[in-house]
Amino acid sequence: MHTTLPIQPAPSPSIYGMSRPELAERLAGLGVPSYRADQIYSWVFRKHHRSAEQMTNLPSTLREALDRVCGLGLPEVASVHGSQDGRTHKFVVALEDGARVECVSMRTERRLTFCLSSQVGCALKCAFCATGLMGLKRNLTAAEIVAQVVVMGDFHGWNDDRFNLVYMGMGEPLANVDSVLESIRIVHDPRGLNLGARRITVSTSGIVPNLRRLAEAGLPVGLALSLHATVDDLRDELVPVNKRWPLRELLPAAREYGRLTGRRVTLEYILLAGVNDRPEDAIRLAAIARDLPSKINLIPYNPVPGLPWRRPAPEAVADFERRLLPIAPAVTVRQTMGGEIWAACGQLGGLEPPA
What we know:
- This protein is an alpha/beta fold.
- Helix 1 crosses helix 2, helix 5 crosses helix 6 and helix 7 runs parallel beside helix 9.
- The chain is elongated, with a radius of gyration of 22 Å.
- The N terminus is likely disordered.
């Protein structure tokens, strides 16, 4: 006698990776009018409810059937680590397949910023980055990217209705460009989080074809170019993707991005003592910035155990900045936040401090 096992229905796709038109289409399969998608989106992204039972303007039949349309659950937050000053928090998020990814919230006097990961690990092997030591495990889905925003927003109680998003966490965003673009469309949706494109910045080490795709997507988000060197020989060592798309291809693509979007490109430049912080480096960097045009964000190196690089002394950072200022359009020095919890630039995926 054979026992027939019940067939388990496939789980519904997560709402955090679903556009409003996609949600409306799934609802239509149940004979539900499309305006209900607007209402559900509002409950989830504007009113921040995570249960269908709380969606009181939906008919009870739809509330009971909503789990057949979309999943409302968020991934588990395995741990949260806060900096001593309380301004930075690193979230270790456990995904359904057991993978873990890290994201970071940073609060300054002016704004709250969420730093998002786009991949589990990274294949680009930038020489100074902890995530690159992991190698690439897999891409994140749009739902897994948007869920990071929601997890951090829930943690902070959504007290900041206008926050910034930076795709600068684990992974190379333009190596997962489809999911990144879809996640931007979801958080940008006026019926959802309604986050303006000027509050969103995507960082890349220089995947030129997908840089063009980002420019042509109709979403004028900010672009942060991880430059870190002004000549190909050194950039080949620090950012190996430069061997595929060297500066002679990357810089014109960045200039075209600025032209198409009307946004000034940010040049990210990690300062490594005795490596890329010489006077001649400053002169070349300023010339590149003027030519794009762009602004420069200097990032004093954040140490990663096992890597040989050193952080320049504060005086050396100040001297490099002074050399830039007369000729570069704009220069800032990034304030290190969360270094003691391994949450600063280049440290994600490295060490996990005690909770």
